[in-house]
């Protein structure tokens, strides 16, 4: 009887023992700083990080009235809407194109996956050259005369295109594995029954690859909500704050002005937005993701 209890206790504690090293790192470097940020967001804080005066929710009310912060929130949401679904759709389509194995498969598979091996800063500089209004490849081949990175109407779209290119390669790798895991007998049966490529996509491939698609969407949601690297390299939040994101707003408040009073509540609002988007994704997971 005692042996059975010990075995049962061992099985119960074993998963937590495996997680313990991760928690030992997360607690001091992630959880504690996050809790400190929440606490400090209710105070006036000087440029040295010293708490001066408790003000409650006044800091939150102040930045929610700040036009620059509101613009950063809107830009971040637009960026997420532009990049997350498009990159996943393109990754799925490329995976379907590469589904059938051939002798030359490694060539186009490598080409499709290449963006995920590119550093963000290097990619940003390459696209900056492509976007040059007078000599850039994009305007040259299309005949357009658009100032992609200096026109407020197009700057966010230009940055979103870069992120779509970067994310598509990552999505392709996962979606290719998911598409190739779909049983061939199901596809053959559907073909015999007269199902064309579009019907196979909608009724077979999409439902059976939803677990992978769900993972990609959830991870990319949080990544996109935290984006600032492309903005930092290419536009510095301009022109006219048309590309400033929440994370870049926080960075500017701290790096340029030492304004922790605004940066702390902005960080908490960014966390709440990301958490909300993730929870909405998990609501979709219950109804739209098929694990069998």
What share of the residues does DSSP label as strand, in percent?
under 5%
Q: Given this structure, which CATH class is correct?
A: Mainly Alpha
Unreliable stretches (pLDDT < 50, length at least 5) are: none
Second rung of CATH, namely the architecture: Orthogonal Bundle
For the record, give the distance between the C-alpha atoms at the N and C termini, rounded to a whole number.
39 Å
* Spatial sequence of strands, sheet with the most strands: 1-2
Which homologous superfamily in CATH is the superfamily? MetI-like
Largest sheet: 2 strands, antiparallel
Tally of domains: 1
Number of helices in the DSSP assignment = 13
**Category by helix and strand content:** mainly alpha
Helicity, as a percent range: over 70%
Radius of gyration: 24 Å
* CATH domain topology: MetI-like fold
Number of strands: 2
Provide mean pLDDT, rounded.
86
Order of helices and strands: HEEHHHHHHHHHHHH
CA-based shape: flat
What can you tell me about this protein's structure?
Strands 1-2 form a two-stranded antiparallel sheet. The chain is flat, with a radius of gyration of 24 Å. A hairpin with a 5-residue loop joins strand 1 (43-45) and strand 2. Helices cover 72% and strands 2% of the residues. It is built from 13 helices and 2 strands, in the order αββαααααααααααα. The longest helix is centred in the first third of the chain and has 39 residues, at 2-40. Helix 3 runs antiparallel to helix 10 (210-225), helix 3 packs across helix 12 and helix 7 (155-180) packs antiparallel against helix 10 (210-225). The chain has a single domain (59-288), classed as MetI-like fold (Orthogonal Bundle), CATH 1.10.3720. The chain has 292 residues and is mainly α. It has helices at residues 2-40, 58-64, 67-97, 105-113, 120-130, 137-142, 155-180, 184-192, 197-208, 210-225, 229-234, 246-255, 260-288; strands spanning 43-45, 51-54.
